[in-house]
Amino acid sequence: MNYELITAPLIGAAIGTVTNGIAIRMLFRPWKAVYIGKLKVPFTPGLIPKEKPRIARSIADVIGNNLLDDETIRKTLLSDDIKTKITTALNQKIDSLSESTQTLSELLDTKGFMTVVDDKEKSLKDTAGSSIAKKMIDMNVASSLIDFAEEELSHNSNPLISGFAPKAISSARESLIKKINDLINEKAPSLISSLIDNEYEKLKDKPVGESINYLKEKFPDYEEKLWTLYSGFIGKYLTTLLKGFNISGIVEQKINEFELPELEKLIMDIARKELNALVALGGLLGFLMGFLNVFLG
After folding, report:
1. What is the pLDDT of residues 211-228, one digit of tens each?
2. CA dihedral over 219, 85, 112, 118, signed as positive or negative
3. Furthest-apart CA pair in the chain: how many Å?
4. pTM to 2 decimal places
């Protein structure tokens, strides 16, 4: 019996298995360069420790530019699945709030937002009046009021009024516009500020459930309106937000922060099956080479 026909393939298989196993281990080990005196031992550190920054940058570029690019994230955030999840969560929250007897001020206070909301209301109250007054003047509200008055008075049943009043108003038009604009500048800011303050106080003291139910009746299609707002926000600001997040930079930084043992474990956990298959393939090739060597010899 030719024992070499058995031993040679087995030895070849052992060599192939061990060689591929060592090659895979050399991807990670040693973690640091090894020196004999001043001479650096070849292939140290391992390939992955040596090229870790470049590998991190390459992986980050693939993830940021190809896997999690703007269009992919946009499609995901605007998908039917996300819409269903957002709508479901929104309805659950609204249904819960619609049964609440807490006032808005109590609810905001428990969440720690009351001070912030009060500050925003004060800021709005201080600026809205003058802004609206300026807008009214820019929109020629005074002129529109005079036009309306002339039209109404011209149709008055009293001939004296319908014949005289429109002409009198027309002759004093510029003076009236100035007086109305002066009145808007003088009175509108305080009136608007007072209106905002009164409505805000009413809203704060109203039960949340009552307000929610009112809004649900007023806007039965609120789901679609909110989704339209959400979609518009994503469409307009997603690219800017992602540039701010810098996904590639985050991934690269995270990979570089991994300790080498942790990175090795992570890669092995992901590719263990494939790496073991390479070791087995080395054994198989070694077995075949050993067999062919004997057979051809």
Report:
1. 888 877 877 788 888 889
2. negative
3. 138
4. 0.57
